[in-house]
Task: structure prediction
Amino acid sequence: MSRGIQLARTGLLVNGVLALTKLVAGVLGQSYALIADAVESTADMFSSLVVWSGLRISSRDADQRYPFGYGKAESVSSAIVGLMLGGAAVGIAIEAVREIVTPHHAPAPFTLFVLIAVVIIKESLFRWVIREASDSGSLAVGADAWHHRSDAITSAAAFLGISIAVIGGPGWEPADDWAALFASVVILINGVRIIRPALADLMDVSPDENVFRSVEAAARDVPGVLATEKLRIRKSGTRYLLELHVQADPALSLHNAHILSGMVKTAIRAAVPRVGAVLVHMEPFEGP
Result:
């Protein structure tokens, strides 16, 4: 989790520098696409702050008030990031349409060099962060990664629009604004892409079937386990919380049944390291 916090801090710093650079270049170079891109980078800054806060909260240990831990803070922070992207997309789209119908000068050619640097930096940052998200299973870190990819795409769109406006000459000035409008659609799509899994986690959606198979296989391989049933798994942050009914010999003493349940928990955690809390219900075997 500390790795995710470190990445959020790095993203915050990079987004701050890029937002200021794009805003200044957009104003001086008369490019609304670049100004819209600066707005998106500013939203990235706030999203990194949200992700940072969510990761810090979710890393807290369970306590009496939150006995299942603080993992859901990750899903909440991811949903907030998605909503911020949606809001930024709507704002950029409205302003882009206004610029399209308002005559204005073509952007300055130097803005293209700024955008080339931005695309390289943001795409590199996306690849770095998404690897960590994949390794840790963190929705919040993944949301932050896709925010970087969104910025890279909007910068590429701005580059294309400005290039058309500069090369096309008089009459092609709105190409810059059409690029900003396209960028708003990309931002909105990424926002929806982030919100959907976050809401699913908040609704305790079941994880991938592979997780179920791994848990059941680990439990059934424990000597003394005769059958398993009623496995339920939900995700809290990067950890899985599960409960499982285990059937054993009806003649097993309460003491030995307790020991067997502990062996099942150990086996499950060894097979699926991301499993946190495990609740095992011991039952008498009722099979043939």
